[in-house]
Amino acid sequence: MSRYLSMIAALLLWLAMPASAETPSPEAMSTARTLVATMGLADQYRALLPVILMSLKPVVSQDRPEIEQDYDSMAAMIATAYTPFYNQMIEQAATLYATNFTVDELRQLDSFYHLPVGQKLLGKSQALAQQTTQIGQDISRKATEELKARLTEALRQKGHKL
């Protein structure tokens, strides 16, 4: 029995290990960068800077008006400092797509996102992802309650006191 469990544990550990990632070809990276641009990820990443700055402002300025004024005037300098992080996000997103899709698939995705339905999907994808996550959470909660009640009743019928 313990040998069987050890084999299962080893199999699960092996399956959980990340696959060795090949470096994507230059063509794949170029095509993936085009896809990332088409998907508007650059704009999404660029929009993170104001959010970051807003969250940092009370921490850095310590709610002191004289510091807040100087803080606000430093936006251009901070935007320049953000550029390497922004570029890294774009490059890593492109690498993610390039390692998960072939060059042909990347081109197909890019073509799809240029279609009206692809643009519609891009516009709605974040809201759809949030809503589908909520659906899964809500139904899982209901299923948990129902299954718990059924299991409890079945165990009581077998003579267990719960």
Question: What report would you give on this structure?
Answer:
The protein has helices spanning 2-16, 26-38, 41-46, 48-61, 65-73, 75-100, 103-114, 116-157. The chain contains 8 helices and no strands. The two termini are 29 Å apart. The chain has 162 residues and is mostly helical.
Radius of gyration of CA atoms, rounded to a whole number: 25 Å
Structural class determined from secondary elements: mainly alpha
Distance between the termini: 29 Å
**Contiguous helical run count:** 8
Mean pLDDT: 87
Task: Indicate the low-confidence ranges by residue numbers.
Answer: none
Residues in helices, as a percent range = over 70%
**Could you tell me the strand content as a percent range?**
under 5%
Q: Which sheet architecture does the biggest sheet show?
A: none
Spatial shape: flat
Let me know the number of strands: 0
Give the H and E element order: HHHHHHHH
Tell me the layout of helices and strands.
Blueprint: H1 2-16, H2 26-38, H3 41-46, H4 48-61, H5 65-73, H6 75-100, H7 103-114, H8 116-157
Helix pairs in contact: 2-6, 2-7, 4-5, 7-8
Task: Supply database-style keywords.
162 residues; 8 helices; flat
In summary, what is this structure?
The chain is built from 8 helices and no strands. It has helices at 2-16, 26-38, 41-46, 48-61, 65-73, 75-100, 103-114, 116-157. The protein is 85% helix and 0% strand.
